[in-house]
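Same chain as my last thread, 245 residues:
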Amino acid sequence: MQDVEMDKVRILTGSDNVIEMQDIWKTYPDGTTALQAINVVIERNEFVYIVGPSGAGKSTFMKLIYREEVPTKGQISVNGFNIGKLKQRKIPYVRRNIGVIFQDYKLLPKLSAYENVAFAMEVIETPSRAIRRRTMEVLELVGLKHKAGSLPAQLSGGEQQRIAIARAIVNNPAVIVADEPTGNLDPETSWGIMKLLEEINFRGTTIVMATHNKEIVNTLRKRVIAIEKGSISRDEPRGEYGYEN
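reply #2:
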């Protein structure tokens, strides 16, 4: 394993913004093999769709990136950090540089929009003045500065997802992992979310997005990695969705 202190420096400086999987296999305790022989490199500033049928292994693929799961076999590096071999106490160093967006938002219901975003900076002990400045910055970016004091229950689904995006980007991550970010949203709101993600990507953040939204994939042509039965079936630079919903 690489020197831990050097790994920490590389993460915090964002000097190696890339995801690389080498012969990744993931088998669960019940014997189910979710992924097999996965080899993929996602370069700096790419926007990648992860597509495939339900149960194909997409969620496992995504969870490996932010170290929610570890591979049974093979090596995965994120920002130059061999996260499959990572000790538990070092996981936070990796996650500081990876933003995660979920389909169901996962906002803390008793905290305001501002507090939900600020919390991501508080847990890494960012100074309070910097927290306020950066939190208001990202709330403005997602168009919800005026809703800073609102609780999640007072926001629409689209607004909640925008707050979730603000939370994901507040620490200036090198990589955003978005798992079905438009899955619970109506078409118009979904396009607004995609415009926002494209803007974040344009600013230099790598985005890996799992989706079943055929229209989005076929309209906003990005790299497409298709996973079927745990294996990569195609990897195309400006691909199409390729499945019937």
